[in-house]
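Our platform keeps sequence and structure together, in a single record for each protein. Such a record has a labelled line for the sequence and another for the backbone structure tokens. This encoding replaces a full spatial description with a residue-level series of whole-number codes. Below, we set out a record of this kind in full and without editing:
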Amino acid sequence: MNLGAKPVLEQKGPYTYRVRYLPKDNITVNDNYTVSYLQPYSALFEPSMSVGSEMDRISALNLGAAAAPSLYPQFLHEIVNGILKKANASLFQNRTVAELLWGYEDPILKQANSKDRITGIFYPYNGTADGFYNVNTGKDDISKVAIIDRWRNKKKLTFWNDSYCDMINGTDGSSFPPFIHNKKKLYFFSSDICRSIFAEYEQKIVLKKIPVHRFVVPPKALASVIENPDNHCYCKDMTISNNCTFGGILDISSCKEEKPIYISLPHFLYATGEFLNSIEGMRPNKEEHETLMDVEPVTGFTLRVAKRIQINLMFKPSKKIDILSNIKQPIYFPLLWLNEKFKIYLLLEVRRVCLNIHAQSSALPN
């Protein structure tokens, strides 16, 4: 760290949680052929499907310390440095899996006299929801079935300041209008990545004796503006993105209270080479790391999903913050990647998230 060396990471996981098992709440049938509802968040640890317990300790990035230079302007960095010193903060820390995911009392926030002193990658989660969905029933037009009409009572997003990127397109991915054509893209909205995205047809397969169409999120969905001009409005910082030439990563700070959070596919699959070259330990693999959906084409029901996302935190050099003074360039540091999977068996839905955490290899438990 003092010499500006590359971080060396080792994957540890999966840590598996049962999620989205609670029924939809506040369901309201509206007069305009739509239904409104909330999807409560809850995560239940599944020890039998995990490599260890939630008490396993991980050497990981210090979230508060790494995010500080992006959250505060440069003229305040000396003050930030003083707070970090008083909190005895380093760029890395040793925490349990549960603490990293769901929250811990942060000495930095405590030293800064913050009202909320809890920090965690998914904090707050249990007992929350991502907002009201208003979805078409299709009673007036079957081609609208499951299409999202509004989210948080708005027809457009407010994150991207662009009419195209702020569009809420498609469904939530759990089902689509019937009679799926393999020549058309499937659009779906994900609040996890603060945008709508699309999947393209790849092949026909058979799932539990049912013929389905497999759709995958292609490389161009997160490609740079050079490869996919439609992504121009997702480029928020010309300097960090090298004039919007970096691909395979999405800056979602505008919907995460300006925290420097970036989304990619696991192990930077399909991302620009600079991301892979700045970190030791990344091994992208299409079969393991792509996002896919198996859709029954007549009904439009999604029978199997594997939604794979990597959460990265960007930190950059700061001459006035000691622990960041030797960093040579911005680093997109992988915190974890998740694999949210579900299959439908005889109308019984089972949904789980498997989390793979990127830890400093020198401090992994024996």
Summary: The CA atoms of residues 88 and 118 lie 17 Å apart. Residues 361-366 have pLDDT under 50 and may be disordered. The chain has six helices and 19 strands.
